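On clarity, I found the account of how folds are encoded harder to follow than it need be. For illustration, here is how one protein appears when written out as sequence plus C-alpha cells:

:::
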Amino acid sequence: MNHTSQNLKAFLQGDWSLTRKVTDIRSNSVAHMTGTALFKEHPKGLWYREQGQSEMSTYQGPFFQDYLYRFPATHKAEVCFTDGRLFYQFDVGENPCEVVHYCGRDQYQGRICIEENQCLNIEWLVLGPRKHYRVMTQMRNCSFFE
C-alpha cells in the first residue's frame, strides 16, 4: 500500500498544474486547456477549484470548475458538484480506477490513475445522442516539482 492509498486527502491537498486536451470525435476538433487546480480544506473534505485558459477554434478564453471532494475512507473520494450531488467516486486502492457517471442519456466513462511521480491523470470518454468526445487531463503536484 503506497502513501496515496493510505491518505488520499493529504495527497491531493495543495496546488497542482493542469493540462487538458478535449477531442470532439465527431468533428475531429481539439481544444487545449492549461491552468491550475487547488485542493483546499473545507468542512466536508476538500474544495477543488480549477481555472486557466482554453484554446479551441470557436473559443479562446478563461475556464473554471469547482467540485467538493468528500472522503468516506482514507483511500476513497466522492467527487460532488457544488450543489452536493454526487458526480463520481473512486478508490485509489484500485489504480487505475474505472468510473461511470450517467447524466440523462449521456454516459461518462472515466479512468483515474495516480502516478508515482505525483501526477494525477483523469480520462473521460463522453457518449450521448449529441456528444462523442474524449477529455484527457494531467495534473502535477506543484510542491513535488518545485
